Amino acid sequence: MDVMGIAIKVALLTAYAVIGTCVGLLFMGIGRKIIARVHNRVGPPFYQNFIDVAKLLSKKTNISHGWIFDLALLFSISGILLTLLFLPIGGVQLLSMEGDAFLVLYLLAIPALGFALGAGASGNPNAGVGVMRALVMMLSYELPFIITLIALMIYYDTTSLATIVRMQSINGVKSWAITMPPFMLAAFAADMALQGMLMEQPFDIPVAPHEIASGPMVEFGGKYLGSLMLYKAIALVAETTLFVDLFLGGGVVAHGNFAFVINFIVWLALIFLLFILSILIAASFPRFRIEQAFGFYWKYEAIIAAISLIWVYILVIK
Amino acid sequence: MLDIIFAELIIAAIITFFVGKKIASIIAGFISILPLFALIDWANNFGFKTISFGIERQMNISVAGITLHLGITPLSWFFALMILPLFPLIMLYSYSFFKENDGFYPFMLFAFASTFGILLSKDMLSLFLFWEIMSWSSFLLVYRSRDKEAIISYLIFSVFSAFAILFGLMILWHENFSLLLSDIGRINGIYGFIAIASLIIGFSVKSVLMPLHAWAPFVYSKSDEPFVAFLSGGLSKLGYYGMFLFLFTLNGVKILQNYTPNVAWNYLLAVVGSLSAFVATMLAIMQDDLRKLLAYSSIGQLGYIAIGFGIGTPLAITGALFQAFNHAFFKAVLFLAAGAVAYRTGKWKISELGGLAYRMPLTFLAALFAIFALAAIPITSGFAAKWLLYEAAIQQKYVFIAPLMLIAGVGAFLYSFRILYGVFLGENRYPDVKEAPKSMIAAMFILMLPLIIFVVFPGYMLDLMKPALSNSGIESIAHTKFAIETSLAKYNSMAVLITLIAAMVPAFIIYKARKHRITSFEDNYLAGEPYEFHNPSMHAAHNFYKPLKGVVLPYFEPGATYYFEKIYKGIGILSNGIRRIYTGFVQDYAIYVVIFLLAVMGWLIWM
After folding, report:
1. In this predicted structure, what is the pLDDT of residue B534?
2. How is chain A split into domains, by residue range?
3. Is the preceding omega at residue B558 within 30 degrees of 0, hence cis?
4. How far apart are CA A275 and CA A24, in angstroms?
5. Separation of alpha carbons B489 and A180, rounded Å
6. Where in the sequence is the domain holding B506, given as residue range(s)?
7. Environment class of residue B514 by beta-carbon count within 10 Å: exposed (0-12), middle (13-18) or buried (19+)?
8. In this structure, is residue B596 part of a structural domain?
9. What is the ipTM of this complex?
10. pTM value?
11. Residue among A24, A88, A77 nearest A274 (CA)
12. In chain B, what residues touch A123 (CB-CB under 8 Å)?
């Protein structure tokens, strides 16, 4: 690849990183507004999260607890940006040809582990308990998610997200995975897993503000809390995009001259809808206990996912 | 030259009986570097340009009319590459680990020499001979623990393994009348089937595959750490070396298939491996003893290798060998780090440790990096191995194995964080502890090097295993220096690493934009309560995964150990019954003699 090609690629990746961050912060603000409306409050303005992040990042008093604590800041932002760039977004492949869905699953663990290290290094017992809950939640929701992922992989005979998106975009909306009955079941299970990934109610057990003082981030303040807010914003975009890539054809509906713009708008609309769905579920349900959440995922969701996997397996073997 | 290397290893083993601890570890360390020169030299034979020391490839030792055929094969060269470098580094570590020389070094050297011998064996006799020397010397090392459960379980399982292997080898000999391993290809039918099955069962004891793993938690948690690092990192690979040798190089898979064309024995091995990975991971999450946690984690991680051999496609076997290579190094580092922690604090229970990261930062870094490799985070070479195995399972559409493997991978995060949080982070319980001695740190950091090299160049690893694979008729995977490509997807480690470093830039800007000040965490450990009311018996890492324990653990009761104990008790009752024939009355013995003579007469008449 020549110098010009690399420069264009780097510019594109930077642009998507910035867009992802802004979209995430915007969505978080809108989410706060919607939850306030459901609760019959006025709520903050939709751009509140931009103000919050700017304020936190420019604070003059920052308390650290040593270099391991700082790893939380460094790994959470870099890890989640890395994950975002390995996903196809609105039909644009970015780096997704260089890796696959398994890589994305493990890249998602980098920011989580960095975050957990920082929380642990703060020495606060609430942080430790919060990380424990987050990890148990991860074990819970990953099982149905992995099973649906395998169903998709054996159906399309690939593990690459870029290829999955391409095969779903051949006939526009009609070839999206979610239009097939087995994948409707799988999409339901995966959406519940997404609820856990986003740590929204009823699965906001790890942060649980009333029980363990917002858990892992209890000791974070100033630039550390600001960076975690950025992490959460980008993670929101990355995780909903992963769902869209898997089941909704990556938002690709058009081919041709202006396809790039149309696909981008469709992708944005789809992740917004997913996020609104998740927010509405969050606004209507109280929090599970940790063992209830574990049972929910490993019993009901896993069985739904397994039915779809067996169905797909029979289709493929035939 | 080769005979000199062997002779020096044996002589060094004898000398170390009589010298002090420091001299013994220096002798053992330097002598055990010699086989590495041989490895470098032999690389010339497999298509790599290295220095030549003029060490021969073949050697025959004739003793009393019996000839032992020794020599290097591409397969044993690759396994030697992962097992042998551990030894000098473990000796470097043990330089400051032991207080005195009380019989550790001689037996370690015997174990090392016999490991080298097993890898060089080209006939069944030398294979079994060296296997027995290895089992015997490692048993004496386990015996140093003075723990009844560890000693008895290791002895019983080693004897079982040796019998199974001997049984298999004897059948092979009876069919071929040739001791050379290369003649096995001719065997077929039921005898071939029984021989191969028995060999696989025998080897799976050493490679701690799930039903036969019961000895490992006891032995790993009671023996000396440097030995356990070698046992888990090095000796467990010998089991997989044997499996690979008989299954792929010597066509065991075809022998099994020819006898029972309708049964997929491969698939059974893969299922056993995946259950092993899943169940052991779940049990590792629940452990409080650091060494037991690492033992179950070993069982789980080694299960992946069995999955790879079971799936049996080139992709899967490549992944399995890669996983074996990684496991040798990261598990050795983890056991050595655990040993360093115990060396300074004297504690093994995770709930009694805590806050050591700032006191022992280098040990923490080594453990952290090894844990990244164990949890297959893509900044270490651990990821490429697991990725190849996942790809292989999806390629074959193994829908039962793939979810178990993946969820075991997620479970690894849980117990990894248990180690990190319980031992190194959280409340600082040991404010006066010093960093581990320099030799320990050096050993751990050198052991980390392969994990770094092969994440930057995963292609080099595939190049290294190419001779072993092509010798067994397995084609190698398409790859470049930085990327591995399969029919399903591509993994480019360079893209990951460069993007990660680039993504560090905004994070670093945020980090540097505003100053921070560091405060001690004693004031916030108690979440705002005054320090005087702090109850030191309370610990956030105590019973860490309690919510999970109540839900998951009942499904794993009563466990394999329960059934082995039942068998153990049953044999006891049976033996007690047989013992009753010794009644102590002369009349009874006379009747036995008469019955025996009558039986012999009856047999002779019948003949």
Report:
1. 61
2. 3-317
3. yes
4. 10
5. 24
6. 312-520
7. middle
8. yes
9. 0.93
10. 0.92
11. A24
12. 355, 425-428, 521-522, 524-525
